[in-house]
Amino acid sequence: MASAAEELDAVVVGAGFSGLYMLHKLQEKGLSVKVFEAGAEIGGTWYWNKYPGARCDVESMDYSYSFDPELEQEWDWTEKYPSQPEILSYLQHVADRYDLRKDVVLRTRVTQASFDESTSRWTVRTDQGHEVSAKYCIMATGCLSKPKFPEVPGLDTFSGPWYHTGLWPDSAVDFSGQRVGVIGTGSSGIQVIPFVADQAADLTVFQRTPNYVLSSFNGPIDQDRVAATKANYRQAREAARQSIFGIAVDMPTKSALEVSDEERREVYQKGWERGHLNAIIQAYTDLIFNEESNETAAEFIREQVRAKVTDPATAAKLEPRGYPYGTKRPCLDTRYYETFNRESVHLVDLREEALIEITETGVRTTAGEYAFDTLVIATGFDAMTGALLGIDITGKGGVSLSKKWQDGPDTYLGLALSGFPNLFMITGPGSPSVLSNMVVSIEQHVEWISDLIDHMTANGHSVVEAEATAEKEWTDHVRAVGDMTLFPKADSYYVGANVPGKARVLMPYVGGVGGYRQRCDEVASAGYAGFAMR
Ligand code: FAD
Ligand code: N01
Question: What is the pTM of this model?
Answer without folding.
Answer: 0.98
